Amino acid sequence: MRHLIILKEILFAQNAEAHVKWFSNFDFSQAPLNMAEMSASGTFWFLFCLSLISLPMIVYLDRSLEKSLAYIKINSFLDRYAENAQLIMRVIVGAVLLMSWQGNSIIAPEIAVFGDLWGWAQFALVFLLLFKETTWIVGIGMLIFYGMGVTYHGIFHMLDYIIYPAVALYFIFSSSKNEKVKNLDLPVLYSGLGFSLCWVAFEKLIYPYWGLSVLEKAPQLTMGLDHQFFLTATAFVEFTLGYLLIICLLQRPLAIVITLVFFTTTVFFGKTEVIGHTILHGALLIFIVKGPGHYYQAPIRFHRSPWMRSIFASFNFAILFLFFGYSYEKLAGEIHRQKISKAEIMDHPHYEVPSALPVPSVKIEATKDEVGGWNIHLITENFTFSPDKAGQSDLAGTGHAHLYVDGKKVARVYGPWVHLNLSKGTHQVKVSLNTNKHKDYYSNGAAIADQVQLDEDRGSSVHQH
Fold it and tell me: Are residues 461 and 366 in contact, defined by beta-carbon separation less than 8 angstroms?
């Protein structure tokens, strides 16, 4: 049974390690799925439960390997090369930087260099990697590159590549003369790669159409399985592999399995995959030669008995799955709202108030009329109603207002007072300030408007922020 589970993971992992953004026309303005939508299928819960069940079996496999004489001998053999770990990473990162420089990219294949100077700076870091004494400078340089990536592409996009700053910190920590600081290098590398795999796994669950578009171009990846099932399965395998790295379960055997899978996907995806995954190969090679390390205890070893380790592995898998899932959903939803908002601004004419001029403002004061309806008072600052200039040239600080009820425009308002009749129930009433040519006033990229919720039945009003 153990062998079948491991075989299943290896087979399904072929597409799991392919970064979808490198091969699809991804668009953050596409609506992401939320956790409820993502988990609505029986396939999702089948794979979730299968992952939980497989973890105790992997715990017992790990326990069996620990007692194996052959496994102990292999570990002893690999321990001889532990001192070469930083050298291995320097060679790997040097290759990554050169390939990225030649491909006019930085950090990842789809992230273009920020300018020629940055490309040459990336090239210069390769020479600093030739010397052990300057390796820490390369680490700082990589952190700067990552920071620039966050500035240009946003933290949500760059979280996919958290392995990059993890490798940077590995260089900085491993170069330290302080023994405690130096021994932080391996934990940060395990955590960084594990986080990357777990995080990117949710890309396949939250944005399934990206992954499905890749599978349509390369259907041979699915081995004849249903595309949606295959995509969901690879997401669970990828998350599981990342989780195993975080808790340091299976250690060297796991690193060998993952790096072999990376090599097999190159057959399907070619040079782009080589550029994107070489840095991951470097981290995995470090895990192979150094194992879990000896300074900090691996999380899975907090408990001695296989039974307690099994509970620990399954329980924390569920906790981390929820944490990553809701975090990804929240950030994906926020980036979607930002993209839609920007698209609306581009599609709808607007007028940005010049920074040197006073910024207009509007506030709604709604009072229930005893006879019926509502008396709406628009309290404005730095703004003059100019009904006589409607349709004429825009003049900062003048114009009129547009009145919306439940998202639908119902009237133009040419003065500070307007009477409004509403049907029974609760309604959203919004007022925007507009120029003479009916453009929405904007300041610092935000519309100048105000909104209240009016309850016709109770006669109450609540401001919406």
Answer: yes
